[in-house]
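Escalated from tier 1: fe (ii) ion holo job.
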Amino acid sequence: MKTKMLPDSLCTKLFTIEQEHRRIAAFADKVLEEMGRCDGSEAITGLLNRFEILCKLHFLKEEAIMKETGYTFLDDHKRLHELLLINLDKFKQCGDVSAQETVLLFRNIREDIVTHLLNEGVLLNDFIRLNGCVR
Ligand SMILES: [Fe+2]
Ligand SMILES: [Fe+2]
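Tier 2 regenerated the structure:
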């Protein structure tokens, strides 16, 4: 038996998180696509900077929402976000690699981030299902 329902405002935020996951995954695909056909490193750097900002803003928003919901594993989750951003930053710093290596390295970064998003998407759905939304 349900003892509480999530407030509508919180449910809206949780659904927004899912939309952002799709946006981040699509942006990562766009970066990969551009890497495959573009030899201008400035354009790629610009895209990577925008991708990093997108991830950072998302992680901050998500952590705030997790805090609001009383998510038990917030500290562990924050650490995961930090690691993903550290790896992305390391990737941005590795200058002397071929275009082919760059694509392979970014593919790994994308894989790690998208896997993270998919995993928490499942957790989020379970959380909403268990608590229920006032809609
Ligand atoms: Fe996350
Ligand atoms: Fe997320």
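The longest helix spans residues 99-131.
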